[in-house]
Amino acid sequence: MGRFVQFLWSSLACGVACVASEDCAGADCSDASAVLQHKTKAKGRSTHSHGGRECSKPYPFIWDNDANYDDTLALLYLAHSENLDWKAITIESDGMGTPHGGPTNIAAAASLVGLGDVPIAMGGLSSLSPIATMPLQWRLETDEFFERMFRGGILDETDRAIVDLTAAQLIVKILNESACPVVILTTGPATNVAEALDMDPSIAGNIHGIYMMGSAYGVPGTNNVYDWQMTYNGVKGSCTEDGGQTYTGLSPPLNRSGVVSAIRPECRGVDMTAHGDTEWNVFMDVRAWHMVYGFLKDLPADHVYVLAANATLNMPVTLEEMEEYAATLADPGLRIFVTELAKAFLAAGEAKWWDAQCAVVMDQVLSGLKQGVCSNWFEDKLTSVSLVWRSNLTDGELNPYGSVYDDEDAHAPPIDYCLDGNVTQMWEVYWPMVNQTG
Ligand SMILES: *[C@@H]1O[C@H](CO)[C@@H](O)[C@H](O)[C@H]1NC(C)=O
Ligand SMILES: *[C@@H]1O[C@H](CO)[C@@H](O)[C@H](O)[C@H]1NC(C)=O
Ligand SMILES: *[C@@H]1O[C@H](CO)[C@@H](O)[C@H](O)[C@H]1NC(C)=O
Ligand SMILES: *[C@@H]1O[C@H](CO)[C@@H](O)[C@H](O)[C@H]1NC(C)=O
Ligand SMILES: *[C@@H]1O[C@H](CO)[C@@H](O)[C@H](O)[C@H]1NC(C)=O
Ligand SMILES: [Ca+2]
């Protein structure tokens, strides 16, 4: 859709019914909780101009995620944002959460933080470019963590909010019907968003802003897809030759010495630690990222934001810190939940704040506080997502697959990349907000 048509459409759609969500306009939605949330807030724009009409906070909001530990940490914060009018939670089935467990796990967490009525949709089973998943063992451990929380009475098991529409159908429906442009946060492989845009490309015109967690853009050497994540207990279980299948690893990897094997070592013959130039959310569905960039290419600046891997490098999750901050939480159930979550997260290998940081950064951008938990933006970048796979690499050569690189001819909108994080401010902003549960 051309820019003109798109904005004409947005302004028409918005002109009629936006009044309904104007309650907060101008006043910055200030009540007690907003004061906590925005205590460092500069006087920012509180309305968003679309084709000359105003649609105000709270913005219609869809959170697309893959039900991982850091997604859950994001939820604990997002639940209290005054910027968001929750329309849906859509779960990626090809990320960390298992296809069956992810949705009910997030449903339980949503219920804990008072979002039990937000519709939740399950995602399609496969990545659009299947090559790797999180190791099955980690995915099952996530389910086990939530199950312990059910048994311990910390979370309630519930499937009440789960709807019949698929994630992509629900995203299309909301964007098609919303009178005001919608904010989307995607903290997973982005498969659902790509499928929705593919189903109805015109919905791109009703996006207020899309915030994406992922990529190793901007800083060489920030790849976080490692070879050790490809095997678990000596069994190949993450990057399989047939990406679409889940290899359950009943036997050890084949010993190739002297035998013809169907399975190459590492990730299809590539040691991703040495040759990777990507990040897990992109790597799990490179085509989805490529499609999202392409479908959004007519969006103007300040609509697409990506938090790249470098921004979280200085934000590891540590048990000491989690215990220290959890102790400040008023709600005893939440205290246990956060501490146990940190333990489970740390058991899965590398644990960083990724999605939770992306959530806070989005919230700050929506509050007019772009410079905050994100302390370094690369703005208006024209970039491409590479679909090219190379296996036979020399020392130091990188596999282009899943890399995001500067490209004047990119089939993509101008994107703002967040490349550095302010840890001090993250703690200052995150914990008081989370503490509103209970
Ligand atoms: C919503 O979808 C319907 C049916 O596909 C279409 O006719 C209509 O133009 C769409 N509305 C908007 C605002 O995109
Ligand atoms: C693989 O097989 C070779 C013989 O073909 C043997 O020498 C080697 O120890 C085996 N390696 C493992 C890890 O089993
Ligand atoms: C890998 O590339 C080298 C040249 O760089 C070539 O000699 C070799 O045959 C290639 N290996 C495969 C498996 O294609
Ligand atoms: C990348 O992260 C490092 C460590 O947190 C930081 O020092 C550096 O400035 C960041 N790079 C950019 C381009 O922001
Ligand atoms: C990080 O945030 C703290 C507290 O909000 C602030 O005092 C500091 O100036 C910020 N640092 C940078 C580099 O932006
Ligand atoms: Ca995630």
From TrEMBL:
<feature type="signal peptide">
    <location>
        <begin position="1"/>
        <end position="21"/>
    </location>
</feature>
<dbReference type="GO" id="GO:0005829">
    <property type="term" value="C:cytosol"/>
</dbReference>
<keyword id="KW-0378">Hydrolase</keyword>
<dbReference type="GO" id="GO:0008477">
    <property type="term" value="F:purine nucleosidase activity"/>
</dbReference>
<dbReference type="InterPro" id="IPR001910">
    <property type="entry name" value="Inosine/uridine_hydrolase_dom"/>
</dbReference>
<protein>
    <submittedName>
        <fullName>RihA protein</fullName>
    </submittedName>
</protein>
<keyword id="KW-0326">Glycosidase</keyword>
<feature type="domain" description="Inosine/uridine-preferring nucleoside hydrolase">
    <location>
        <begin position="62"/>
        <end position="369"/>
    </location>
</feature>
<dbReference type="InterPro" id="IPR036452">
    <property type="entry name" value="Ribo_hydro-like"/>
</dbReference>
<comment type="similarity">
    <text>Belongs to the IUNH family.</text>
</comment>
<dbReference type="Pfam" id="PF01156">
    <property type="entry name" value="IU_nuc_hydro"/>
</dbReference>
<keyword id="KW-0732">Signal</keyword>
<dbReference type="GO" id="GO:0006152">
    <property type="term" value="P:purine nucleoside catabolic process"/>
</dbReference>
<dbReference type="InterPro" id="IPR023186">
    <property type="entry name" value="IUNH"/>
</dbReference>
